[in-house]
Amino acid sequence: MNNLFLIAYKESYKKFEIAMLGLQTSFEHCQKIGIKPNYTFEETEAFDALIIKLTRNSDIFFQQIIKGYFKLKGEDRLLFIDRLNLLEKMEVITNTDELLSLKSFRNQAVHEYSYVDFQSLYEEALVLTPVLKKSAHLFFEHLKKDNVL
Length: 149
Description:
By secondary structure, this protein is mainly α. The protein has a single domain, classed as bsu32300-like (Four Helix Bundle (Hemerythrin (Met), subunit A), Up-down Bundle). Helix content is 78%, strand content 0%. Helix 1 runs antiparallel to helix 2. The longest helix has 32 residues, at 41-72. The radius of gyration is 16 Å and the shape is elongated.
């Protein structure tokens, strides 16, 4: 294991934890707003912030935290789906499909594939934020058991 990479990995994880606190704050704010037919400008801004934080944090989780872990283990050539399946098999994550839904949400929110129904994005963000939070927590517990953190 490369010590410099391990140091950088630990630093990335600390920054990720801080970013997750910001996501949690946005999530709680949007939960209070709730899902409704119409939103004020401020409410739309709050949900937009939640979506941005959720997509950014999921990217960091997938591209730096999970991918970096496999790099530390010398298995950095695995495909995204293979990493998730292996983590599920190791019982580090509970459900590969939930994380694939998170990846799909990220792609839908970031890329303009088609008309985006913002209300459904808001609803999905409220469902998927706890998924990321739970998955990150389980992964953190695994990193501690594996003496990475």
